[in-house]
Predict the structure.
Amino acid sequence: MNEGRSIQEEVLPEFVQKCKEFGLKITPQRIAIYKEVLNSGNHPSAEAIYKRVKQSHPAISFDTVNRTLLTFAEIGLLEIVEGSGDVRRFDPNNKNHHHFRCKNCGKIIDFYNKTYDNLEIPDYIKERFIVNKIKVLLEGICNNCMEKI
């Protein structure tokens, strides 16, 4: 990222380009939803984004926010973070990375690891499937929760 430019200034051109590429209108609601995911600093749920966007767009519905987030994931603007029975969470970080999820507080932390990026796909998987992406999800207890124990 260039110094002096916000993350929004860096990625909003990509947002506009992706929306145009997939025939999506660039509406104030879509921009607000995308900005809130970017500004969240974590991996927010649709409910968390809805609560924030509703402040500036009181007529927006939860369904609109949820469908918009799913659409953004479909077109590659966001990733969906899979959890173990947790609510669906969204990740604006499109760089190749992995996640650590705290089983106690639910916090999801991004981490980068070239070894995980280059995991060898077992032959029996390669023979039966096409693997497009490798994502490692580690689960345990984060340092903040460990300090409270």
About this structure: The first strand starts at residue 79 and ends at 81. Residues 47 and 62 are 7 Å apart (CA to CA). The chain has a mean pLDDT of 89. The longest helix spans residues 7-21.
